[in-house]
Amino acid sequence: GTANIGVVGLAVMGSNLARNLASREGNTVAVFNRSYEKTETLVTEHPEAGFIPAKTYEEFAASLQKPRTAIIMVKAGRPTDAVIESLMEVFEPGDIIVDGGNAYFPDTIRREKAVRETGINFVGAGISGGEEGALLGPSIMPGGSDESWVTLGPILKSIAAVAEGEPCVTHVGHDGAGHFVKMVHNGIEYADMQLIAEAYDLIRRGTGKSPAEIAEIFAEWNRGELESYLIEITAEVLRQIDAETGKPLVDVIVDQAGAKGTGAWTVQTALSLGVPVSGIAEATFARSLSSHPEQRAAAASLPGPDEAFTVADQDAFIEDVRQALYASKIVAYSQGFDEIRAGAAEYNWQIDLGAVSKIWRAGCIIRAQFLNRIADAYAAEPELPALLTAPYFADALSRGQAAWRRVVIAAAQAGIPAPAFSSSLSYYDGIRADRLPAALVQGQRDFFGAHTYKRIDKEGTFHTLWSGDRSEIEAEDTH
Ligand code: NBP
């Protein structure tokens, strides 16, 4: 074989990734798709790429140098399993199968284990950045074995996005670590998008500014600490005028947000791990709420506040919203990194959180300068208990908290939903609280279920004889 890398699955993502690979010095790319039409189209439309097309898995395997390396870009789920099974029949021990699709990380753990038994390496790699990222440079989050990283690392580095001279790819950890981190990336993306949407809504309803005027505010914010791809594209979307009606496009788009499931995975996984990713959860639920038109129609007559929402000082309000957005964003990222750390502990991955933040600086949807701050925080203190306690973020929160509170109060008074803003503030107040009413919850649990409690003043586990004389006894620790 003459190709050093192959791509299986030539729909939009696979075709773009194959073209990206072919455009880099030193790569010869073999391509295969289940139905040959897609292969033919790609090869015909891009003669410059020098692709080596294959009609069968056997031909594909024969066109690859050893150890063979192939990246699968097909629909997640059954199709991915089908391709892996076919490749296992034609590959040999030492070869590397990479799944670049959006796999659910437990599937990746299962597949890695099954493939490894044959001596073939399996790498689940999260690839972020959509079609454009695949073509021009994505952020890549590979898991898998150290052995496969030796071969794969240089290839992935050659196609990844570049941030400040560094390729946006790192060996995240073993087996499913890459897809796990990609999942949390998407969860953070949900939170970031929802927070921006809430900021827009509050400004629009508080000031009466047009979407185009608000676009200018976001463009301005994009020059400061909020600088990010998502803020940048928000300005673009708000500026867009619908050709048919002459209205702002945002006003003719149906207000029901879709989702492909990665936000829900992030929240489900966080629930199992016991990590409070409330910002990501609220963002995911906000999409669900929006997508139930029948319930919304039925509830539309429920009363809101009597008074109209007016903002006395528009500039001051906008600045408050900006600070609330930044503070809430810090909470969302802090929660996301907590989930990665908890996942690493649960699944025995050695994940460098600073390295993860660095590979998100370019190529992916949440790309931003901000991520350098996260890398700095973990560099200064690798065992940081929570990102938001790092000096830079703690300082930003202390500067922004008064504005944050004013915005959440204004939203509540005005009857404007701000679930991500307000839940992030509650999280902040919860995590920094000296005492939480969790003590009362423990008392309740002990009352109805004899679940026992600990005391602040002595060792041991206790139970009050609630249905007896209400004296306290030492008890077995049953949690
Ligand atoms: P699709 O997810 O639409 O999948 C289409 C591809 O899967 C075609 O090549 C199709 O072959 C192949 N396929 C199917 Br369906 N069943 C198959 C089977 N049983 N055996 C072999 N091949 C099969 O493609 P996409 O939109 O390019 O996405 C590819 C992957 O990338 C997905 O996992 C997706 O979730 C992920 N993705 C990521 C991003 C991102 O931003 N990171 C964006 C979009 C997609 P055929 O041509 O013969 O039907």
UniProtKB/TrEMBL annotation:
<keyword id="KW-0311">Gluconate utilization</keyword>
<feature type="active site" description="Proton donor">
    <location>
        <position position="189"/>
    </location>
</feature>
<comment type="subunit">
    <text>Homodimer.</text>
</comment>
<comment type="similarity">
    <text>Belongs to the 6-phosphogluconate dehydrogenase family.</text>
</comment>
<feature type="active site" description="Proton acceptor">
    <location>
        <position position="182"/>
    </location>
</feature>
<dbReference type="GO" id="GO:0004616">
    <property type="term" value="F:phosphogluconate dehydrogenase (decarboxylating) activity"/>
</dbReference>
<keyword id="KW-0521">NADP</keyword>
<feature type="binding site">
    <location>
        <position position="102"/>
    </location>
    <ligand>
        <name>NADP(+)</name>
    </ligand>
</feature>
<feature type="domain" description="6-phosphogluconate dehydrogenase C-terminal">
    <location>
        <begin position="178"/>
        <end position="467"/>
    </location>
</feature>
<feature type="binding site" description="in other chain">
    <location>
        <position position="287"/>
    </location>
    <ligand>
        <name>substrate</name>
    </ligand>
</feature>
<dbReference type="InterPro" id="IPR013328">
    <property type="entry name" value="6PGD_dom2"/>
</dbReference>
<dbReference type="GO" id="GO:0019521">
    <property type="term" value="P:D-gluconate metabolic process"/>
</dbReference>
<feature type="binding site" description="in other chain">
    <location>
        <position position="190"/>
    </location>
    <ligand>
        <name>substrate</name>
    </ligand>
</feature>
<feature type="binding site">
    <location>
        <begin position="9"/>
        <end position="14"/>
    </location>
    <ligand>
        <name>NADP(+)</name>
    </ligand>
</feature>
<feature type="binding site">
    <location>
        <position position="451"/>
    </location>
    <ligand>
        <name>substrate</name>
    </ligand>
</feature>
<dbReference type="GO" id="GO:0006098">
    <property type="term" value="P:pentose-phosphate shunt"/>
</dbReference>
<feature type="binding site">
    <location>
        <begin position="33"/>
        <end position="35"/>
    </location>
    <ligand>
        <name>NADP(+)</name>
    </ligand>
</feature>
<dbReference type="InterPro" id="IPR006115">
    <property type="entry name" value="6PGDH_NADP-bd"/>
</dbReference>
<dbReference type="Pfam" id="PF03446">
    <property type="entry name" value="NAD_binding_2"/>
</dbReference>
<keyword id="KW-0570">Pentose shunt</keyword>
<dbReference type="InterPro" id="IPR006183">
    <property type="entry name" value="Pgluconate_DH"/>
</dbReference>
<dbReference type="GO" id="GO:0050661">
    <property type="term" value="F:NADP binding"/>
</dbReference>
<feature type="binding site" description="in other chain">
    <location>
        <position position="260"/>
    </location>
    <ligand>
        <name>substrate</name>
    </ligand>
</feature>
<keyword id="KW-0560">Oxidoreductase</keyword>
<dbReference type="Pfam" id="PF00393">
    <property type="entry name" value="6PGD"/>
</dbReference>
<feature type="binding site" description="in other chain">
    <location>
        <begin position="128"/>
        <end position="130"/>
    </location>
    <ligand>
        <name>substrate</name>
    </ligand>
</feature>
<dbReference type="InterPro" id="IPR008927">
    <property type="entry name" value="6-PGluconate_DH-like_C_sf"/>
</dbReference>
<protein>
    <recommendedName>
        <fullName>6-phosphogluconate dehydrogenase, decarboxylating</fullName>
        <ecNumber>1.1.1.44</ecNumber>
    </recommendedName>
</protein>
<feature type="binding site">
    <location>
        <begin position="74"/>
        <end position="76"/>
    </location>
    <ligand>
        <name>NADP(+)</name>
    </ligand>
</feature>
<feature type="binding site" description="in other chain">
    <location>
        <begin position="185"/>
        <end position="186"/>
    </location>
    <ligand>
        <name>substrate</name>
    </ligand>
</feature>
<feature type="binding site" description="in other chain">
    <location>
        <position position="102"/>
    </location>
    <ligand>
        <name>substrate</name>
    </ligand>
</feature>
<dbReference type="InterPro" id="IPR036291">
    <property type="entry name" value="NAD(P)-bd_dom_sf"/>
</dbReference>
<comment type="pathway">
    <text>Carbohydrate degradation; pentose phosphate pathway; D-ribulose 5-phosphate from D-glucose 6-phosphate (oxidative stage): step 3/3.</text>
</comment>
<comment type="function">
    <text>Catalyzes the oxidative decarboxylation of 6-phosphogluconate to ribulose 5-phosphate and CO(2), with concomitant reduction of NADP to NADPH.</text>
</comment>
<feature type="binding site">
    <location>
        <position position="445"/>
    </location>
    <ligand>
        <name>substrate</name>
    </ligand>
</feature>
<dbReference type="InterPro" id="IPR006114">
    <property type="entry name" value="6PGDH_C"/>
</dbReference>
<dbReference type="InterPro" id="IPR006113">
    <property type="entry name" value="6PGDH_Gnd/GntZ"/>
</dbReference>
